[in-house]
């Protein structure tokens, strides 16, 4: 009962102890309390009850009862870090027990061996236990044994064997009422999905398991550890670190299992390293190593040592000692049959290369490279990274490029299994090293044109195909509606000066629920096999248009100028200097949005000149007189490009990639020319341009006041030729897909836009911060504009800074006048800027807006 209804079992056991039971019955009751405390409570209390249960079993003179308690006590001692005592108790249980009971004890000893990382011993005990349990028709314990065997197979990388055992166990669980064990089976299936490379299914199954455990009222720290693994594989390392640290806090608070604390510390160390926090990673990994060593868990200790060495290297502590340490870890992991062994060999080779130890580097990298042809995607990428690093060391650019191509192809295949835009964007971080190696090799051996090809290979790849459309999930739709309602109520309360902590908590809960459901989506669109062709780009540019793609190599901006059938390279400044200058400019534009800051105008203009020197360098003098397309890297998305002197009076547009610009250029507008004008609440001017635009476009659909509600707005935007939205915009750096435009019934968020069959061909967002993005992954952007571009939008006008609402109105009216005369978005925006008054507020407003795409 303790694994079917844990809290009821605990209450029943306490009732038994209050009724003057016999030693036999008291032994059972103390064991139940001990198991409950062992798995979900205080280990000290657990050990006290289990020792009493053992003593009472001896008084009852029942050998099988004593063997059963010794098994539960042995597992508890192992979890408490008292490994030698725990194994002795389990050994004694095997000796004392017989037949069916002995098989159950063997299962628990196998479980303890798995906890300790003794996988072969675990498999041997399960092999002996399963036939006896089956013969006794013990469905529950047979299912437990099969689940454990599957879990051990997964630890050894035998995914197919694990799947077979999980399937057999699940069929048995369906015939029982063991709710906790059923939840554990769902959790185990989630682990199997993760190990086979299906991240969305893993997240869905682990979330389902969490719901089941929550109904039982039992915290499950193993689930936290597995969720951390999957979150890290999905590129969500900061979230994994937060989850691991939170679980450690809960575990410490209840005096829980020492073994689980060590595993959570290891998960936190891995997450911190992936999140770029090397010092936190070192601290967590060092604690994990010490705990695992004290618990005599060599398998686990070796994995923790691997993370500790990786973190020390990330902190700049490469040394000959670390080469030897990494090599020793690789050998030990290989002896265990652990899938992480190639990762350790790659690390040893990487450190050796940095020290100039070529023979050592070659030996370790060749071992790591063996994993490139089989196994899960990330293991194969490890192999291709090792192959590329050694090819670079021997000076073979051709082999570097081939290894990088093969490795990135593996990651491409992996990304197509991910449905959520966020996961696809974050997954690209795993290919950043390969993309960087290829870029350096291509520049050395192939010149600017080849560098352009590799710059495009791993830039804004999420925009290369439409995202998976969210399913018609009633719970997701209900969550989105509830989120809008709560967010609207919270906003109204803030405006009235009322406290909103309860509403904010509920809003955060709904956000987590919506995000969780979207992350469960499996990719349904395989890659289209598209490969960027620089000849096609140059043909489409023709003689007049110039495309400037900014690549970053070793921290310096490389300017690739594409025009008139050629690709030329110029060198800009340091990326870090450009980022710093861009932040200063953004601060200046924020101040200029308010009257009285005119003195800042010359300062901002001077910063624009410095930005041009850093970002364009000598290429600024080679732009000619025609239109320009700027393709910046993700980390420069905050640059207000209209402020650069060479672009200020020019027709120019911005695109996340050259490939994205080509797709936009070739996008065909929808038939009918339908136009939609939307006016949201709360604008200082009331969205004053919308009524005037409605008068000009008599046939346009106008949505304002109560009509400007999210469901109606989405229905009208779908497939429109031109949409204009005047509304308050908010950018969420912490969760970019919850960036929003305020409508009458609450926020219209990026997740809503992703439900469109086709977003408007042209869309104008006369709102603050609509062109802000979060830079994630290798070179990806998440935000409102990037959500629209893959959905059929060919041109967007949006704003990268807060602006003065009144100054926006004349800019928008002139912009629409140009579009009505047949101009492109970039042409109309250039002319609209030129028509503004020369005061600081209007100038800053014009600079804050950019045209994206090619319409």
Descriptors for this entry?
37 helices, alpha/beta, 62% helix, 5-stranded mixed β-sheet, 6-stranded mixed β-sheet
Describe this protein's structure.
With about 850 residues, this protein is α/β, with parallel strands linked by helices. The protein has 37 helices and 16 strands. Strands 7-6-8-12-15-16 form a six-stranded mixed β-sheet, with helices on both faces. A five-stranded mixed β-sheet has the order 3-2-1-4-5. β10 and β11 form a beta hairpin. The protein starts with 5 loop residues before the first helix and ends with a strand. The model has no long low-confidence stretch (mean pLDDT about 90). InterPro entries: CHAT_dom, TPR-like_helical_dom_sf, TPR_rpt. This is CHAT domain-containing tetratricopeptide repeat protein.
Q: State which percent range the strand residues make up.
A: 5-15%
Mean pLDDT, nearest integer?
Answer: 90
Strand order of the largest sheet: 7-6-8-12-15-16
Q: Please, how many helices?
A: 37
Percentage of residues assigned to helices: 55-70%
What's the oligomerization state?
single chain
Radius of gyration: 31 Å
Topology, pairings included?
Layout (H helix, E strand, L loop, with lengths): L5 H12 L5 H18 L2 H17 L3 H17 L3 H14 L2 H18 L2 H17 L3 H17 L3 H15 L5 H17 L3 H18 L4 H13 L3 H18 L3 H17 L3 H17 L3 H17 L5 H17 L4 H15 L2 H12 L7 H17 L3 H19 L5 H7 L4 H26 L16 H22 L5 H19 L14 H8 L4 E8 L2 E8 L2 E9 H18 L8 H15 L12 E4 L13 H4 L3 E3 L3 H8 L9 E5 L9 H8 L4 E3 L6 H8 L4 E5 L2 E2 L9 E4 L2 E4 H4 L8 E4 L8 E3 L3 E3 L1 H5 L6 E5 L5 H16 L4 H11 L4 H9 E5 L2
Parallel strand pairs: 1-4, 4-5, 6-7, 6-8, 8-12, 12-15
Antiparallel strand pairs: 1-2, 2-3, 9-10, 10-11, 13-14, 15-16
